Amino acid sequence: MIKTTGINHVALVCRDMQETVQFYTEVLRMPLFKTVELPDGGQHFFFDCGNGNSVAFFWWHDAPPAAPGIASVNKFPFDAKTAVGSMNHLAFDMAEAELEAALDRLQEAGVEHTHAVFNHDDSPSGYSKKMHEGVFVRSVYFTDPNGIMLEFAATTRSFGPDDIAHEPATAATKEDA
């Protein structure tokens, strides 16, 4: 049996390492703790996002350009589809009591964001404007300078067997639609 203890890091690609370092260290206040110069002239930098978890970025002068709507989200929450194999977004865990302060920090830094806490629930729309006992996670969405969709997420309740209520879709499901 393979036993993991969590996520060590997620590796993303940035368009400008200096801009990325400034955003993650100054706006999100995630310390930069390791830098690597790659043999091909690229870079690989690591940021501490809390509890022993990391976010890492690669930079190459000749990296392919961003492809919003294909490899990254166009605009969350209503235009969030991305291509198979892409990373849709990265969610950082946060205490619920910290969400309003996070909104203020993003506003203060001039970072485009959802401007309100997004309450995820099991309603047909998947969200509620108001907090209620069916809300299972509360989120703030924003993008970094590379167009990577980020989320501050606060889980609001424990999950149980009733939370697994849907059959997984298959490629055949798409063909039947």
Could you walk me through the main structural features you see in this protein, from its secondary elements to its overall organization?
- This protein has two domains: 1-62, 2,3-Dihydroxybiphenyl 1,2-Dioxygenase, domain 1 (Roll); 87-162, 2,3-Dihydroxybiphenyl 1,2-Dioxygenase, domain 1, CATH 3.10.180.
- The protein is 15% helix and 28% strand.
- The N and C termini lie far apart (38 Å).
- The protein is an alpha+beta fold.
- The strands form two sheets. Strands 5-9-8-6-7 form a five-stranded mixed beta sheet, with helices on one face. A four-stranded mixed beta sheet has the order 1-4-3-2, covered by helices on one side.
- InterPro entries: Glyas_Fos-R_dOase_dom (IPR004360), GlyoxalaseI/FosfomycinResist (IPR050383), VOC_core (IPR037523).
CA-based shape: globular
Q: Any idea how many domains?
A: 2
Element pattern in H and E: EHEEEEHEEEEH
| Biggest β-sheet strands, sense, barrel | 5 strands, mixed
Kindly report the spatial arrangement of strands forming the biggest sheet: 5-9-8-6-7
Given helix and strand content, the structural type is: alpha+beta
What CATH first level of the largest domain would be assigned?
Answer: Alpha Beta
User: Total helix count?
Assistant: 3
User: Which CATH architecture of the largest domain?
Assistant: Roll
Provide the β-strand percentage band.
25-35%
CATH superfamily of the largest domain: 2,3-Dihydroxybiphenyl 1,2-Dioxygenase, domain 1
Under CATH, the topology of the largest domain can be stated as 2,3-Dihydroxybiphenyl 1,2-Dioxygenase, domain 1
Domain VOC: 6-155
Pfam families: Glyoxalase
InterPro entries: Glyas_Fos-R_dOase_dom, GlyoxalaseI/FosfomycinResist, VOC_core
Protein name: VOC family protein
